[in-house]
UniProtKB/TrEMBL annotation:
Belongs to the eukaryotic-type primase small subunit family. Residues 1-139 are annotated as: Disordered. NCBIfam families: primase_sml. InterPro entries: DNA_primase_S (IPR002755), DNA_primase_ssu_euk/arc (IPR014052). Pfam families: DNA_primase_S. Its EC number is 2.7.7.-. This is DNA primase. GO terms for molecular function: DNA-directed RNA polymerase activity; metal ion binding. Residues 107-118 have a biased composition (Acidic residues). Residues 1-14 have a biased composition (Low complexity). Keywords: DNA replication, DNA-directed RNA polymerase, Metal-binding, Nucleotidyltransferase, Primosome, Transcription, Transferase. GO terms for cellular component: alpha DNA polymerase:primase complex. Residues 50-94 have a biased composition (Polar residues).
Amino acid sequence: MPHSESPPESENSPIPMANVDQEQEDTVAESTTAQIPEAQQPADEDVDMTDSNAVLSAPTNGTTHTSESKAGSSAETPNNQDTPVPETATSAPSESKPATGVKLEELFDEMDSDDDEFPTTKAAKREPASSPDLLSSQSDMEIDLHEASDPEVMRTFYQRLFPWRYLFQWLNHSPTPTNDFGHREFAFTLQNDAYLRYQSFTTSDLLRKDVLRLMPSRFEIGPVYTANPRDRKTLRNSSAFRPLSKELCFDIDLTDYDDIRTCCDKANICQKCWQFITMAIKVVDTALREDFGFKHIMWVYSGRRGAHAWVCDKSARALDDQKRRAIAGYLEVIRGGAQSGKKVNLRRPLHPHLVRSLDILKQHFQSDVLEAQDPWRTEDQQEKLLALLPSDQKQLVSALRNKWASSPDRPSTLKWADIDTVAKTSTAKNFDTKSLLDAKQDIVLEYTYPRLDIEVSKKLNHLLKSPFVVHPGTGRVCVPIDVKRGLESFDPLGVPTVQSLIREIDEWKKPETKEGGQEQEVEKHVVDWEKTSLKGYIEFFRSFVIGLMKDEREIKVKREREEGGGGESMEF
């Protein structure tokens, strides 16, 4: 989308609301064991299934997720082959509807001793897990020896630490079951590398039980469909099964910065190159809020080298593919692969979004690019910089090349300053200072502006890894990032791992109070995640869900009033 145009205004292009069926189902089905076919696990951290009939995903060889690699992998699998979906069996009662008048915050009260989603300390003593080994009795060394993908390690995490209730309320937009959750697609990557799509559940408890039964290495979240995904084959009209709504998502991966980061490459990261993600989050989050009016945006660490954005507003979830492509195009500035030349070519005057982005990024460019990365120290690297200067400034380029040849170890900060210094002494006639300024702005954007995998954002039916799952390669939990309070201080290498969390549970000691010289235990049920460093992340997630559900409830009440007449009654 050309950046000389103004961003779309909501008044001129209203976004349709999704029709959500609020009818609560009376019964739910629990899935039983099914035979899982062999398939290859996709290499991506998220999955784009453009063919709604495809169930298995073939492997990709690239470390980044591009549309080409995905299309190639899906072509190897016939579209008419589906993974057998587990049959439904015994039914269980659905979650009860909360009493009238209960405050929304009270739905998150953890004092309920009957809550088996988050077993309390007392409950754990009363009902020990059926697994013969929850690793609670193992030494620190034995815990560390377990891989993050070890089934018993994962079983412990999903049984005791994963926030099932809040995940349900986040996707359901209500404390009681609706089609927003019941018709939502989940996809499992199993331990044998099989990929199981079109799974659906009416309650969080059924999702939890199926995860504990299948023990996937991870699971993805897809769209809400017009019908239950498990029933798609029974529909008389197959075209009636289509995606209805889904969060607008964005994906940023550090492998897309390999041509400009000097500290790491491929899957390796450090605090220096993580600043590229910090810059990207600032720019994208600001644009989504100020230019499009979105409010409920959650950023989640991907578990290794990137971050995902979930835009959860009702208007964002109802966007069709065309509107999603428009927003993705609006945010796309960097074009071309690692081997291409100049990746930023912008028309002047700059769009207000880009002027604002430059204002956000200029400080990062000095400290996190020039100083921390030193991207033009070597001769080969400095030639990349010279190639980005205006092509008609040959005298300037030649003078800079000669100056830097006499100082081989000249740092990038000084080389950047040399451009202006040498330009001021130029004797060339009709020296175009405006084109040099424009080129320098383009260079700043090329080295700092977000590099988005826009294919993730374009499709309504794209699947993305769930928050709070464990990355099988690093063991780190995919935790949310508090953009307002903790973005600058967020350390991806300091995110808790599943092994460290299990150890923290074992090392936790119940607080005690002293009264009358005698020690008395605090009679408070403590859920397992509250005993660990995961506590702050789950509490942030809970507050995000509360805010989202409040807005959803207000929208529902307003719509009901409008449909009910809403006007003043006539008096006779």
